[in-house]
Design a protein that fits this description.
The structure is a homodimer. The first copy, chain A, is an alpha/beta fold. Chain A contains 15 helices and 20 strands. Chain A is globular, with a radius of gyration of 23 Å.
Chain lengths: 462, 462
């Protein structure tokens, strides 16, 4: 337990308001990576982060180009070559948000209300990545800097499945070399139950397109004689699940590693009741595979969801057409050892087998991400657990995350180092939904935990 | 055969270019009745028509208010009280259209190409209603006027199922009193095979709404544990048809009057081959009830179509949400003696029986229209057949229209007079689709046929 980490923690507490003000600035830039219209906003966000890192004392800061949106790199190597180096990964891009979606306040005009900051990206992931930036800031303002070296890699394409990050890492293995990677892009059920995520689900995201007539047809002229593409689409989509809610795609479960009793017991520590699910989501009742608990379903089991549907007339009132085409966005959350590309092939083959000759059907791959599973007995994982005890004030559980950070598997495999996922959000933060927010108390406790984690890492034998 | 009708026909031929220019003006106003944003355009169109009728010599012209969009009324009673009176019905509203839907030219900037005028409303129904306006114009410019009296009732809500026309007629029975009603809002298979429509399908149009969570959820957090509303919707929609393509809603066929052999023989005169269907629509293969011919399916059989689907993320790329809600527009074409409200109740009951407890489902009625069937042995129907022989130059067949003009049943029932549907469009005109157009030759031959029809009616014994 070093004095430098105590001083940094005090500094972080005393400067909480300034830190929130800086986060507010970062949240104002609508860095939506899924929509090309926001390309300039993405670049402005990268520039803002690079400028901020430079200002607080990071070195070698650069907005590094990729085939897509840039990576922001920065480092502080002042602890010296005999000390561990920590690589901090975060992402500064966000998913779309608009007031019309049902937000109470404009999603890119942050508002603090009841101790929470409301904005798109507040918890996913701008607020969480900023925790590590402020940990470094606090060390540098109060002494000689952290007891370990730090490198930041902040990307702008996580929400589109990081298509260019893997090539970026491969091209910059020396620059990025480190002993451990820390990522804060996940969450805990309540503030007193912090969690270290040791598993993430992968992803196969596709679009299913059905086409029939050349143009929309008048349903009075051709209704009854041509296969309505919207009907053909729903007939296909309705066959993707079995009556027991399992997924009907042949071979889908082939590579799923069965849960052991010990793993199920660990998952049971963060059990979610029917009531908790209903309160958190507003859904009238739970749904899913009866053989698995709710927590297992959302973290350790693969899923297949319809993310979007579009066909024909969707404006007000009536338009009596047979739509020329219909489209569904469909994505699977995958678990070890499922291969995203193999899953795509299985879906494509199954949909083709369901497609009638009365329409044209194709399945287009949008993106993929590998699932990841990290051993929680590694010393760096245990150091993180101690950091929560000291910095957060509660003992963490090791959990499986239901979401996907495709890059975790890549970092783990490419860079041969442990990835510690210390998520500082809450499950109820509304990420990817309306009124996304981040608790300011958790922001503060996150910064202190991140400070202590660096201290704990410095004390591990090399 | 009167000299006055010959002179009117010559005048119409000599002034074809002026008539097309006037139609062009009418087509430029985007009188989209399904979208409240176009309310002003609807009123501008009504004013334009009223002004035009006044200018050419119609009397008592008025833009008459309703609870919705106005009715344009105008008359010419110069033939005298001992002559028949013809009520011309038409509609000046159109369905939506946008260049982005795949039009070659902007839908409200008419273009003449290869003898056709391209614009939304060209054939449905601005071009066709204008035929009767120009028939009156031609008589008035060349003599004392038509040999019968004329009344025009031009409405602006046909494409939203005429919610206010029935009350308007009930409130104005004296004003509208006539001996026969003529409507040109239908079409023929080829220019040499004119058709008089003696039957129209009715309509029940609903929206099916499925709601689950309060907000869109992150599929990584809740995927697998809540019922995805888009999935629940497609599961319901996929059960609306039986595997043999008949409609699965219990009781749906109860009131369908079975086709007689004689009726099937009449329908067979306008048989549609698989090849013709494929060429006209671009659909890869026919679809529907195997026990009925293609022409029977599209005109004499009831149908159920999905007109639109909307849920979740439909923009570019990936957004990994469980949508909070999903919606489908669903409409049925009905035949005698199906009751649109009874059909709505049957759909509502059936969907409720399919709805699982894991989501909230409701079926909302958007609009209805009664089916209609007119006896083609009536003298006015036979006069129309002779008008085609003289004015168009071909013998018409009596056909069943697959579309819906809800007001036909109302006029037939409320005003106790025959309704003669003389459609001057082609089945391939693209109405309700992209690149809607109207043949200028058919516009011209339509005006001449309309002129001769007035002549034929004048010669019928009273």
């Amino acid at each position: 337990m070093s004095r430098s980490s105590d001083a940094a923690r005090h500094y972080a507490r005393d400067n909480a308001n300034r830190f929130v003000g800086e986060l507010d600035e970062l949240l104002r830039i609508p860095s939506v990576s899924t929509d090309p219209a926001h390309a300039d906003d993405i670049r402005r966000t990268a520039d803002w982060l690079a400028g901020h890192l430079r200002e607080l004392g990071a070195e070698n800061v650069a907005v590094m180009p990729t085939a897509g949106y840039p990576v922001v790199y920065g480092e502080w190597m002042g602890a010296g070559p005999d000390k561990r180096t920590v690589l901090v990964y975060g992402h500064y891009d966000v998913v779309p948000a608009a007031l019309e979606d049902g937000w109470d306040t404009p999603p890119f005009e942050p508002v603090v209300k009841d101790g929470k900051i409301y904005a798109r990206g507040a918890t996913d992931d701008k607020g969480q990545l900023f925790i590590h930036v402020k940990a470094l800031d606090s060390f540098l303002k109060t002494g000689d800097g952290p007891p370990v070296n730090l490198k930041f890699i902040l990307e702008g394409e996580e929400e589109v499945a990081s298509p260019n990050l893997r090539p970026f890492i491969e091209a910059n293995l020396d620059l990025l070399r480190a002993d451990v990677c820390v990522i804060s892009d996940s969450s805990m059920p309540t503030i007193e139950r912090p969690a270290i995520t040791h598993s993430l689900r992968g992803m196969t995201y596709v679009e299913v397109h059905v086409e029939g007539p050349h143009d929309d047809l008048h349903s009075g002229f051709y209704g009854g004689a041509v296969h309505n593409p919207a009907l053909a689409l729903v007939e296909i989509l309705a066959k993707l699940h079995n009556p027991d809610h399992s997924i009907a795609v042949p071979g889908f479960y082939d590579d799923v590693v069965p849960l052991t009793d010990a793993e199920r017991a660990e998952i049971a520590k963060t059990a979610m009741s029917d009531g908790e699910l209903k309160t958190a989501t507003g859904a009238p009742a739970p749904w899913g595979e009866a053989d698995f608990t709710l927590r297992e379903r959302v973290s350790a089991r693969p899923t297949l969801e319809i993310n979007g549907l579009l066909s024909g007339w969707t404006g007000p009132g009536a338009k009596t057409i047979i739509p020329a085409r219909a489209m569904a966005k469909v994505s699977c959350r995958l678990v070890g050892d499922q291969d995203p590309h193999r899953i795509y092939e299985q879906i494509e083959r199954y949909v083709a087998s369901l497609a009638p000759p009365t329409v044209r059907v194709r399945v287009e791959l949008i993106n993929t991400g590998e699932p990841a599973l990290i051993d929680f007995n590694l010393p760096e994982m245990q150091a993180a657990a101690r950091a929560y005890e000291r910095g957060w004030g509660a003992t963490p559980v090791f959990t499986r995350g239901g979401g996907s950070i495709p890059i975790v598997a890549d970092i783990y495999n490419l860079m041969q180092m442990p990835v510690v996922m210390m998520g500082y959000g809450l499950d109820t933060d509304g990420l990817h939904g309306t009124n996304e927010h981040f608790s300011l108390e958790m922001f503060q406790r996150g910064i202190e935990t991140a400070i202590v984690f660096l201290d704990e890492l410095a004390q591990l034998p090399r």
